[in-house]
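Researcher: Next entry: Alpha-ribazole phosphatase (Clostridium intestinale URNW).
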Amino acid sequence: MKVVLVRHGETEGNSKGLYEGKKEVSINENGRNQSKKLGNLLKDYKFSKVYCSPQKRCKETLDIIIETLDFKPESIEYKEKLKEIDFGLWEGLSYKEIEKVFPRQWEEFIKDYKEFSFPEGESFIDFYERATKILDFLDDGSYLILTHGGVIRAVLSKLLGSGIEGFYSIKPKQGAFSEINYYKDFIEIEYINKD
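Model: Predicted structure:
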């Protein structure tokens, strides 16, 4: 089985280092250019199924990629499980702003993110379990999964066997893809952050 994990193109918030989870935002001009480049990089792939986050930035990225690739509409499925984590009150803030406005919670997050719940948002463990459930939908075949940085981190850490502890070991770039060949007893990493 082949799994190609694509992170959506850059948004204005991404370019400014802001937390964007459930917030609905569009990709910016750079994100559109990244998406066109992704389409060219992926044009020779044949995917049996495409799973995409229903969030606007992912749909926009996919629409641009589709212009290059030959997808049938029935091969595309939008999955709620692929949405980015709900950062709650941290949505739209930078690291520095969060540290200033929520110093205690920021310290808790840095100390043990695995046990953390975002204020008025999602718990980290709930997000991890939700995001990695996409693997239950995969069997033999070739899959394109277009989603968010957090979801890609969760899926890769699960596939690599490091679990939630390895979540921050990989930093997916906007407008890039990672390719994994997944066999019954082992996985083979073809690319991480190809762009």
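Model: Note for the record: Residues 2-194 form a domain with the Rossmann fold fold (CATH 3.40.50.1240).
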